[in-house]
Amino acid sequence: MASGVLARGVTVVLERLGTHMWGFPPRLMAPIVVELRPMRTVVWFVWNMPRYERTLRAFGPVRTHLICTLISLVNGCRYCTYAHGRALQLAYLHHYQRLFPLSEHAIGRLRGMPPGAIRHCMVTAAHNAGLYNEVRWLDRAIELTLAEDRSPTERDDVRVSHLVRMFSVLNSVAIASNIDPDEAHSPLNKDRALTLRYDNLRAATGT
């Protein structure tokens, strides 16, 4: 009984944290508490989320969500691919005032393809989006995701290596729990004017 109360308490705290950051309680929180157990979940989030937030500030949301989307695609995670694919859409529209070449749904259809094919499609989309400098980050993210040793080898690898290790846990829990996607894991998800504008632009272009 006590463990069940603790698990529910930790889940509620994490769902409230998600609501504070992104405007909704993420469906991933309850499964991750079940998978990792309550106290390990708390330690995991305390260790990983501040590092993730620092990467967001250092890389910016477009690069960060592009990398997270790619990692989740290679790992075959439907939930995180959508969550960060949509976050990428909002970040790109907010920053560049135009649509990213591939919608979150088109990106999701890449899931299950060989890593080389995923890379080709995502690199092509990055080029078409004018994100030429992001290709090296995509390449390194794929290399580390597929590697047995995910330790960073260069200074710039540290943040990518952390994202790869962090999302290996998030992806595995989401896949095992078969969670349906919810919304963008981004503070921009709370900007209703931006999300409505994005949805209307996608609907108008039919992409």
Report on this model:
- With 207 residues, this protein is an all-alpha fold.
- The protein has one domain (40-205).
- It is 73% helix and 0% strand.
- It contains ten helices and no strands.
- Helix 2 packs across helix 3 (38-59).
- The longest helix is centred in the first third of the chain and has 22 residues, at 38-59.
- It is globular.
- It starts with a helix and ends with a helix.
- The mean pLDDT is 95.
Notable features of this structure?
globular; 207 residues; mainly alpha; single chain
How do you describe this structure in short?
Helices cover 73% and strands 0% of the residues. It has 207 residues and is mainly α.
Which word captures the global form?
globular
Structural class: mainly alpha
The domain count comes to 1
Residue runs with pLDDT of under 50 for 5 or more positions? none
> How many H/I helical runs?
10
SSE pattern: HHHHHHHHHH
Q: Tell me the radius of gyration.
A: 17 Å
Instruction: Give the fraction of residues assigned to helices.
Output: over 70%
Number of strands: 0
Task: Please report which band the strand proportion falls in: under 5%, 5-15%, 15-25%, 25-35%, 35-45% or over 45%.
Answer: under 5%
Distance between the termini: 49 Å
> Please, what is the average pLDDT?
95
Largest sheet: none
